[in-house]
Amino acid sequence: MNGGDIPVFHPFSPETASISHLFILVLIICGVILAVVVGMIGYGLMFFRHKPGSSDPAPHFGNRKLELTWTIGPMLIIIWLFALTVHGMRQSDPAANRQPDLIVIGHQWWWEVRYPKTGVVTANEIHIPVGRQWLVRLESADVIHDFWVPALARKMQLIPGLTNHIWLEADAPGTYGGECAEFCGAEHSWMRFSVIAESPAAFDAWLSNQENPTAIPAMDSAQTGLKLFQTMSCINCHSIRGVSVAANAAPDLTHLASREILGGGVMSNTETNLFRWLKNPQAIKPGCFMPNLKLTDAQTGALVSYLETLQ
Ligand code: CUA
Q1: Could you identify which of 63, 177, 214, 216 might form a hypothetical disulfide with 1, taking C-beta atoms 3.0 to 4.6 angstroms apart as the criterion?
Q2: CA 16 / ligand 1 centre spacing (Å)
């Protein structure tokens, strides 16, 4: 991903910039308080220590000026921090005020991504146009997940039976890493995704390609693969627009070959990796819901050559 080593210091959206500014400002305020407190303790230790032969100093009681200072001073600091926080919350998390531009549904252990205005469905990869503030509706198909793209947006949970919203926006084109930030089962760590921010023209081109249903492949091996896809258990879980759209228990594969990652980020989407994945997903992502179908090398090869046509 781009965005530096610690994304909180390298925000790429107005929302994360406001979070970052708040964080840095609070850090500075607390740093100054720490320095004052440590300084006073140090001063006391240096100059008011017990010296041999000296008696105990007389205690002071009821210094109204001092008491007012250390009550009102911290109160003002807390009010200031409160005002800064409310301002940061308003900027990073404005109220959801319209229909969502994107629906993201968390599954164990992958992300379903729906573009409600077009009917496009994809997985583990979110394309957005640069500079537009998009409203994302978050849902869960099973357990609690947490949607987090550190460089672009705050964290937000996906809770079964509830819908949450988050704003997603990028100032600059690029690929931004995202992950599930709530432990959600064995393969929680391989529940990654990418947000690909592109110029509006490139985004429109991507979206219109995604809108196309698939065509019947020309190559023999790909045709064999398509037949296998339809006759083995693949279509019980996966949809391919133009072939079968009944299932949504597993990622929609309509434009699988256009994606960069497989299996929630467990590997990059190459022909070799796809072959290994189909051959035995359990060896790569143990516990995932795609079973080992015990495909022969010939069957796997045919399926790969079909899936590679899904550009
Ligand atoms: Cu989903 Cu962790």
Answers
A1: 177
A2: 22
* Residue 59 pLDDT: 84
71 and 142, same domain (yes or no): no
Q: Tell which atom from ligand 1 comes closest to the C-alpha of 184.
A: 2
Which residues are within 8 A (CB) of 290 and not within 5 positions of it... i.e. 6 or more apart? 237, 250, 281, 282
pLDDT in tens, 59-91: 888 889 999 999 999 999 999 999 999 999 998
Residues 82 and 15 grouped into a single domain: yes
Q: Counting atoms of ligand 1 from 1, which one is nearest the CA of 189?
A: 2
- Global pTM reads 0.85
CA distances from 253 to 16, 109, 221, 299 (A): 32, 16, 18, 18
Count: domains in the chain: 3
Let me know whether 151 and 231 are in one domain. Answer: no
Task: Give the 3-state secondary structure of residue 149.
Answer: coil
Q: Which residues line ligand 1 (CB under 6 A)?
A: 106, 109, 145, 180, 182-184, 188, 191
- Distance (angstroms) between ligand 1 centre and the Cα of 36 equals 42
Q: Whole domain around residue 241: which residue ranges?
A: 220-307
Both structure tokens of 212: 């196309």
